[in-house]
Amino acid sequence: MKAVLTTSERRFAASIAKLIYGNPFLPERIAREREALGDAFDESMADWNLRGEISADHANVRKLLDRCAHLAEAVRQRLKHHSPQRGDLELYEDLVLFVAYYRFRDAFDKVIESALSGRTTLTLSACYARFDKTVRHFLFPPHFGDSAAFDVAHLFALFFQIKRAFHFIFRNIIGTSGSAARFRAAAWQSIFTHDLRRYRTVLHDRMGDITTLITGPSGTGKELAARAIGMARYIPFDTKSRKFADEFHSSFHPVNLSALSPTLIESELFGHVRGAFTGAIEDHPGRLEECSGTGTVFLDEIGDLDPAIQVKLLRVLQDRSFRRVGDREDRRFEGKVIAATNRDLAEQMRAGRFREDLYYRLCADVVVAPSLEERLRDRPDELASLVRFIATRLVGSAGETLAEEVTTCIREQIAVDYSWPGNVRELEQCVRNVLVRGKYNPPQGPALSAKERLAQDVSTGSLTVDELMQQYCTLVYAQAGSYEEAARRLQVDRRTVKARMDNKLLELIRHRKSD
């Protein structure tokens, strides 16, 4: 055995291995890029995983790809003459995987955009041929066995899945706050688990057995997160037909349980046979039957589900079987279930409105969607970026101008400590209100601003010194928009501002929720 990697090369390859198997939406991703590149790391891209997906590979990825490609080719030549140590072989394989993914990422992206636009889906036949040639160029016998031992088609399917996950998570869960970043990271884990290496080898085709439950207030994007998770499921690639086994863009089946009567929910979920009830003039397959093994049924507002249907859904989750309404034939559900609710299911169970056994079938994977108030508490300037995103989606190139109008309206017409009870959905309606009427009036009526509340409390002499500092720090922070600027104006340390403001914000949150 002879090492085919030098000490410095092994260190670099180990950094790449940690990078490719880590969660790209956590701060660790940037730390791994910095570790691998050292002084060559471009600090201007140190927050790319907060900004949203960019159209081309950023500077650090280009540098990493160049280094990985050169090192992989050098090791390939060495392997012709040496039998490597096992550890070196695994690191070399990870280098090759990094190179292969980024070389074919653009091709995958074109397939995704083609499918979503409704155009004829681009063929992957030629792409797969090039991919197969690239992988086999690096991972060849005798070190990596034959094609049966090293499944190139599986790698191809996995890389296409990873690209879809990036695409839909970035598109559906926006924002630069820590809360938004953690929400994206949680969605990624729901798709790949916390161990991508194990997912690649044994879990990729078993995740349909794990139900995902998304909780959080109304308007926080729970369905968007569910759609991102559902449309990024693993889909096998068939080398004979040169096609994927299913179409990702038609594999997501949402059902809003709160919008349907129990009878309609049964029919929508389980299907019915002709004559099962008045108006059932022909057989009808339900969403569970229409869903393929790589598809997802999304049950929105699961907390509102009728107890009788909860029993039937429990059977689906327990043994994967169901019956159409009015039928005696058992049918099998092959897909994945994602459920969402804004209800407190613990309270629902205590009140006897939600079955405990159903809950414990749903909670294998829980994702919590943060409120807009929580996101703004993390990062106040997130409001402006969200407004810009919504405005651009509404009016395209005129979005920047509309965003400025909305931001001005919010600053002048809405209290600085407004809690946005409708969350991102309310913010979207705020943008539309400004677009149509030039103003937005929050639904609960006018509220005292922080400035008005402070003036009122000072005039009545009802504040202690500590309370006065808390309210004043809150007001200055709201006007300044950042801890640093507020600290500069107040001539104190930023940690003092944060401690004072956080205490006041928590009081305001409790006050508003009790109103």
Sheet of most strands: 5 strands, parallel
How many domains, in number, for the residues? 4
In which range does the helix fraction lie? 55-70%
In total, the number of strands is 11
Average pLDDT, all residues: 88
Which structural class best describes the helix and strand composition? Answer: alpha/beta
Shape: globular
CATH level 1 class label of the largest domain: Alpha Beta
Looking at CATH, which topology of the largest domain would you report? Rossmann fold
* CATH level-four homologous superfamily name of the largest domain: P-loop containing nucleotide triphosphate hydrolases
Gyration radius, in Å: 27 Å
Strand order of the largest sheet: 4-7-10-1-11
Number of helices: 23
pLDDT < 50 runs, ≥5 residues: 509-515
What is the correct CATH architecture of the largest domain? 3-Layer(aba) Sandwich
Structure characterization notes:
- The chain is α/β, with parallel strands linked by helices and 515 residues long.
- It has four domains: 7-150, no CATH class; 222-370, P-loop containing nucleotide triphosphate hydrolases (Rossmann fold), CATH 3.40.50.300; 373-437; 450-514, Arc Repressor Mutant, subunit A (Orthogonal Bundle), CATH 1.10.10.
- The protein contains 23 helices and eleven strands.
- The strands form four sheets. The chain has a five-stranded parallel sheet with strand order 4-7-10-1-11, with helices on both faces. Strands 2-3 form a two-stranded antiparallel ribbon. Strands 5-6 form a two-stranded antiparallel ribbon.
- The longest helix has 32 residues, at 86-117.
- The protein is globular, with a radius of gyration of 27 Å.
